[in-house]
Protein 1
Amino acid sequence: MASASSSSLSISSSSTLVESKAPRQTTAVSPQCVTLPTLPPLPVQSQTRPLKTNAHCRKIARNVMAMATGEAPVEVATTELPEFVKTVQESWDKVEDKYAVSSLAVAGVVALWASTGMISAIDRLPLIPGILEVVGIGYTGWFAYKNLIFRPDREALVKKIKDTYKEIIGSS
């Protein structure tokens, strides 16, 4: 049985492949030849990608030429920096010991990372998160009762917040 099926699947060589011509597909399949399905055509690449790349390269070349001649590139629009960025730049320029400020910033990031790790470790303990949640709710209630319910207490709290703000920022 195996010999009968192997004889029907034998592939005969064709001289058309040697002559670099595409073999003709016949609709009737002979018992000695096996026809293979044709491959689908190659996908057509869209022409928009090379155009975008070429346009980008032309834009870069134009900017380089403009910078070499001392002219400002046409597409470059002078945009104003936000007020916050200007304030930060001015404050950074006023700092005398930039190394110390940078070190403090790095130490602050490390401390924040460490405290996050510590809080997540405490959160994994069985009873501690529930107890801390009850303590937080209790303190919030006490703070609201002491500072927010009555008008004189609210005014004293607002005054204390404004004084602390002025002390930190400085009087203008």
Protein 2
Amino acid sequence: MKFTDSPVIDLAVGASHLSFQQDNGSMHVGTTVWPCSLILVKFAERWTTLTPSDPTSNPYADVLDFHNKRAIELGTGCGVAAMGLYLLGLTDVILTDIAPVMPALKRNLKRNKNVLGRMLKSAQLYWNNEDQIKALGAKYDIVIATDVVYIEETVGPLVKAMEALVKDDGFVLLGYQLRSPEAHQLFWEICGRVFDIQKVPHEHLHPDYAYEETDVYILRKK
């Protein structure tokens, strides 16, 4: 897969095709489609097509069994990961980001409404805003996050929000790429206190959607 700065990014998920309008010239990183969102969706697509009853052939059968699961995406940006996972069966999902990114998110939700069959739920969320976190209601089975670790000062609030929003028996699906050495070190230091960390082997990613520097992690509360 070749990453592109094209104004429109297309993503095939099963027999469906999503299309995202991005703005690389914006001052907000959330209006750009970042690689890890694509990689997470295609990882999930690869393993959800296998027979779920055979754990020896599908080590992610439980993780990617989206039936009756509630999910939330943090820092959703253009909405790629949540929309892609929705098409793979994660039908109870809410997409969140900060106020300046919401117009781009809603534009892309509307753009893909016919493919998705409806407008997905969205909400404004600043990771350090406890009132907004409480307003999101009961904790979630799955927290989705991709390409969200790039500024050192947001790392603490991010991990705190993940911890607050995920159920004790739930997990975080994380698409990750090193963006800042300082943020990287702090993120994994704090995560190691809160979560058990499972790194998906690189050979388990979709062969057409795997960068050498990108990874998928599954985080579970300790």
